[in-house]
Backbone:
């Protein structure tokens, strides 16, 4: 019996962009990737502003911020994709890529999240909205940051700087 090889990088996975187009993470090969599960009606929703600032400041260095709207925590993302996109653009000026709404926890989680959650271990999995996963330029898991760790915190920016400095293999 032959089993399929286990994914080893984020580049193995694909989402659908918020507009429904395919969004393979391999598109971001050679870039550091910060993946954040987001929600529009959460006390942490103002992190969109920090994420957008981070994206604008570091994208030319090779950082991609990817927002993954989810309704897994407190039903705080009940809107449709078009409503989410409009809200993010209008209220926070979001220009970084967003996916369609996805499940990020449990057996129904998007395959990327099932894999990333394994990489992070039980304590490093999303327990609320605005949980962050960081991947290096080769798509390898680097670390995670909890909801309460803001994108512009010293801890996050130091990890992103290190991921951006790392050489692509």
Residues:
């Amino acid at each position: 019996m032959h089993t399929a090889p286990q994914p080893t990088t984020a580049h193995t996975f694909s989402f659908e962009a918020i507009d429904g187009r395919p969004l393979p993470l391999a598109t971001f090969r050679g870039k550091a990737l910060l993946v954040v599960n987001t929600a529009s009606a959460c006390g942490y929703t103002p992190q969109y502003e920090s994420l957008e600032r981070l994206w604008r400041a570091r994208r030319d260095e090779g950082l991609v911020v990817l927002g993954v709207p989810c309704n897994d925590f407190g039903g705080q993302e009940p809107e449709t994709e078009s409503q989410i996109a409009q809200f993010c653009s209008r209220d926070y000026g979001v220009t970084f890529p967003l996916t369609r709404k996805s499940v990020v926890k449990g057996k129904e989680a998007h395959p990327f999240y099932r894999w990333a959650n394994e990489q992070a271990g039980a304590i490093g999995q999303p327990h609320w909205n605005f949980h962050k996963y960081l991947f290096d330029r080769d798509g390898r898991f680097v670390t995670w940051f909890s909801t309460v760790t803001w994108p512009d915190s010293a801890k996050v920016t130091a990890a992103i700087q290190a991921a951006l400095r790392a050489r692509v293999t």
User: Anything to note?
Assistant: The chain has a mean pLDDT of 95.
